[in-house]
Design a protein that fits this description.
The complex is a heterodimer.
Chain A (H helix, E strand, L loop, with lengths): L1 E5 L2 E3 L7 E2 L4 E2 L6 E3 L1 H14 L5 E7 L5 H10 L3 E5 L6 H12 L6 E5 L10 H9 L3 E11 L2 E8 L2 E8 L3 E4 L11 H7 L4 E4 L8 E7 L8 E3 L4 H10 L6
Parallel strand pairs in A: 1-6, 1-8, 6-7, 7-13, 8-12, 9-12
Antiparallel strand pairs in A: 2-5, 3-4, 9-10, 10-11
Helix pairs in contact in A: 2-5, 3-4
Chain B lengths: L1 E5 L2 E2 L2 E2 L1 H17 L2 E7 L15 E5 L9 H14 L2 E7 L2 H14 L2 E6 L4 E2 L3 E7 L4 E7 L4 E5 L14 E4 L10 E8 L11 E5 L9 H11 L2 E4 L1 H5 L20 E5 L5 H7 L4 E6 L12 E4 L2 H17 L1
Parallel strand pairs in B: 1-4, 1-6, 4-5, 5-12, 6-11, 7-11, 14-15, 14-16, 16-17, 17-18
Antiparallel strand pairs in B: 2-3, 8-9, 9-10
The chains are: A alpha/beta, B alpha/beta.
Bound molecules: flavin-adenine dinucleotide and adenosine monophosphate.
Amino acid sequence: MKVLVCMSVVPDTTTKITFNNNNTEFNTAGVQFIMNPYDELALTKALDIADPVGGTVTILHVGLADAEPAIRKALSMGATDAVRINAAATDAQFVAEQVASYAKDKGFDFILTGRESIDYNGGAVCGLLGAMLDIPSINVITQLEVSGNTATIERDIDGGRETVSSSLPFVASAQKDLCEPRIPNMRGIMAARTKPLAVVEPISVTNHSSYQRFELPQPKQGVRMISADAPEELINLLRNEAKVIN
Amino acid sequence: MSVIVFAETSDNQYKKSSLEAVSYGKEVATKLGSKVVAVSIGNAGNPESLGNYGADEVVTLHDAAFAQFSPEAYAAAFASVCKAHSGSVIIISNTYSGKSIAGRVAVLLGAGMASNVVDYPEIGDQFLVKRGVFSGKAFAYVGLNAPVKLLAITPNSVEIKQHAGTAAVSAFAADGIAASKTTIKETNRITGKIPLTEAEIVVSAGRGMKGPENWVMIEDLANAIGAATACSKPVSDMHWRPHSEHVGQTGITIKPNLYIAIGISGAIQHLAGVSSSKVIVVINKDPEAPFFKAADYGIVGDAFDVLPKLIQAAKSATAQ
Ligand SMILES: Cc1cc2nc3c(=O)[nH]c(=O)nc-3n(C[C@H](O)[C@H](O)[C@H](O)COP(=O)(O)OP(=O)(O)OC[C@H]3O[C@@H](n4cnc5c(N)ncnc54)[C@H](O)[C@@H]3O)c2cc1C
Ligand SMILES: Nc1ncnc2c1ncn2[C@@H]1O[C@H](COP(=O)(O)O)[C@@H](O)[C@H]1O
């Protein structure tokens, strides 16, 4: 069994977001970058499936060398080897093109991504990859079992859940509830130092989009406090001032 | 040239988010001087009704292949309509189903894609769309360069607008749709509840509620004001509530008109998922709770005292 897991590297969830150069650039000063939380789930699930049958799990990141600590973390969680495609990721389409070009002739049984990267929140790579590789794509999955040439998958749908079966290969995106993320242990951390990390040069692709500028949400005007003894005043304000309830 | 909208259904009814998508499409088409073609795949109530929201034409597709939702088949069929009608701007809702086809459609059309779109595009020298990034902590303006542009619109971002027009309905035969390699075995929909991602009002609670047994009050308040329910991460981690209710940076990002947070401290990761809500109410016994800084209205008090009174007040108000 051969599995590919795609990983993005994102600002830590506690990061206060600010921008530089007239709001055209994300300010990375002092920001700690981590493995995207959903990709930890994807990797853990891939390992849970591949390890018992002696399979391999390759972790793939499209990005520059500064992502190596996060890649080593994935290796310390148990990934067999890592690939870094040496290009700054400009958008989901660029990433998917790179991943598809790498994966197309490698015979992976399945590919996992995260449900979305918590920085650019595209939630797009899974579907893009599915179409580029002409394989099924199943997003926001909460359970995955592989048996022979078939996978049984549970996924979130709008207002519920559904169970689907898919032939292999496929690509799916990990949602919370899929598993608890693995925490690397000492042995894993030691082993990760010597695991292979291949650096592959990118293919050239046409950029479909360009980030022009950023904006922070409007700060609130200040909170209006209401006495705990007069909740009917709150209802009154919500109906007649804010007009958000009937 | 036309603007093509995917009209998603649930139980054979067009979803509210689909009506928003059609209205959005109309706005864009007016700016571009083109028409709106809404695409309805599978069985749906009454396709003509989409005319009321701005569709000039509705194309329906009926085929055994569409009896079940399949991202592959739906994306292929939808993309063939986009091609046949020379779609230059393609609108899909940023729902789970919408997102499961959006990427595939973008590849099939060679389109530039933006998901999580929260406003109308600026159309000038560039086609600029505003999208949520950093889980609601910021917005980005992205220029789409490809001739065909695909936008996935976040529900509750734009208003549904009524139009007087009627839509011409025609059937479309999509050829060459390959048999799907996936089969749906079972579908479980939560019935009788408003889906969180589409809700205009959300009542949400955190660890301050002490235990799952106290959610009766949260449900009561939600029912009294027609709200969906949500929760903080620890609450779903402890299985007090299903994970589908978890909002925040690692949960669902929502933007209802009203978000009421009860017994939630307002950690940065929680705020990320809810700060785009139009109006925020915070009820917390700690006057120093960080959430008050992000609130429009606040009550400092014990939820166990405030909630019964609030539910009562909401019920008598709606009874009037
Ligand atoms: C990687 C990462 C990702 C995360 N992602 C998310 C996320 O997506 N969403 C999320 O919500 N969190 C997330 N968190 C967790 C977040 O940091 C907070 O721990 C969490 O939001 C706190 O939940 P809470 O407010 O329910 O609980 P607490 O922080 O324990 O707050 C409880 C609040 O209830 C109040 N309270 C107590 N009793 C009462 C009472 N009787 N009446 C009224 N008020 C009362 C207290 O004053 C307090 O403010 C994440 C954390 C990490 C590290
Ligand atoms: N730069 C990247 N390199 C590798 N995989 C990525 C990259 N960016 C995103 N992904 C994968 O795609 C998923 C969804 O990302 P996105 O579509 O950007 O929200 C992530 O959870 C990753 O699994």
